[in-house]
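Contributing new records

If you add data, match the layout below exactly. Sequence lines come first and carry their own label; structure lines follow with theirs. Keep one chain per record. Anything else will be rejected by the validation script.
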Amino acid sequence: MNLYEKYRPSTFDRVVGQDKAIGQVERILEREGWGGNAFFISGPSGTGKSTIARIIASIGADEFTTERFDSADDLTMQALDKIEQTIAMYGWGPKNGRAIIIEEAHGLRGPTIRRLLGLLERIPKHVVWIFTTTVDGLNLFEDKIDASPLLSRCHEIALTSQGLCKAFAKHVQAIALAEHLDGKPIAAYEQLARDCRNNCRMMLQRVADGKMMD
């Protein structure tokens, strides 16, 4: 297992550098509850989108009742047919819910988006949808598709890329120490964060490659 997966946060309080976004999610969950909602999480690569998506999903759905699509290209019409049938039923795990996570949502195409608009209009109370993307704004889809109809059905959560250097440096150094892969001062980790453009996943890959050892 790679370091990014091994040390992926499983609770909101362990997510690094995204306090504002986490606070927004927690307020939504407190106000509206978990099910019947859709979230659209945007932000640069390696800043926590997938992690936050998985944490949201885990609140009401078990791992085996959470469907993950690593690319919007995988969300075929056949997959949507199956999802529509499945979400009509409660999950069979202890949490009883179902979650659908669509990564790289900027790759969605017109027919798929039109189908999603109908599904997102009537989300069952035991279901949550979560989309992630590295692209933000109303022009996030290719082919000049207007994103507003889909975004209007979702809670938009924008992750920041600002102020992450020191936070990620401290976080990654702690992991490097735990894995006996550390040999450099915190300043070197801050430089690593800058070199990796605050992409925590990339930073941890460099640690695994032995880049932070003497």
